[in-house]
């Protein structure tokens, strides 16, 4: 199981590869309000995520109180980011995000992180996509024109140049 925020789904949607992450043996969870309020564009995104298998969840009372604590501890985090981190921490599952501020808070809270690039690495390492598909994804992220995908250019370029160096072992 993995708890997600929104940006990884937006990244994969922006390059037309939304179904790729669902080839991995993960169950993806997302908090109901995040799903309802932050994943409205493109118009079919919510429907597609549900079709591919995203599970929408509510938070427990323990997660509610932890989210409030996290929100106080890391003021730059949005309330939705605090909830996603609280769910991941309480359920002891990885957090799927590319959000820089959320990633820093997750590291401070000892929560395992997976981002867009690591998902691509895992897909390739587990032979869920070919090397050609892997490099294509990375190039699409690098050249994505809408400005919605903001991944580290140097990490994408290193993987494009030497894909086998990034096989997850």
3D architecture notes:
- With 169 residues, the chain is of the alpha/beta class.
- The protein is 53% helix and 8% strand.
- The chain has a five-stranded parallel β-sheet.
Strand order of the largest sheet: 3-2-1-4-5
Helix coverage percent: 40-55%
Give the overall form: globular
Q: Which H/E pattern describes the elements?
A: EHEHHEHHEHEHHH
- Radius of gyration, in angstroms, nearest whole number: 16 Å
Number of helical stretches of at least 4 residues: 9
Task: Indicate the topology.
Blueprint: E1 2-4, H1 7-14, E2 28-31, H2 32-38, H3 45-52, E3 55-57, H4 61-73, H5 79-91, E4 95-96, H6 100-108, E5 113-114, H7 116-125, H8 131-143, H9 153-161
Parallel strand pairs: 1-2, 1-4, 2-3, 4-5
Summary tags:
single chain; 169 residues; alpha/beta; 5-stranded parallel β-sheet; 5 strands
Concise summary:
This protein is 53% helix and 8% strand.
């Amino acid at each position: 199981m993995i708890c997600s925020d929104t940006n990884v789904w937006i990244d994969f949607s922006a390059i037309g590869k939304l179904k790729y992450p669902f080839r991995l043996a993960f169950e993806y969870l997302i908090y109901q309000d995040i799903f309802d309020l932050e994943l409205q564009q493109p118009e079919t995104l919510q429907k597609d995520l549900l079709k591919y298998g995203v599970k929408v969840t509510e938070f427990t009372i323990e997660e509610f109180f932890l989210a409030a604590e996290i929100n106080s501890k890391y003021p730059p985090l949005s309330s939705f980011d605090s909830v996603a981190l609280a769910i991941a921490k309480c359920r002891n599952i990885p957090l799927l995000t590319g959000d820089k501020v959320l990633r820093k808070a997750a590291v401070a809270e000892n929560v395992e992180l997976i981002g867009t690039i690591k998902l691509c690495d895992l897909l390739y390492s587990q032979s869920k996509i070919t090397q050609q598909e892997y490099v294509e994804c990375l190039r699409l992220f690098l050249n994505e024109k809408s400005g919605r995908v903001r991944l580290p250019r140097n990490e994408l370029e290193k993987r494009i140049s030497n894909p086998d160096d990034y096989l997850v072992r």
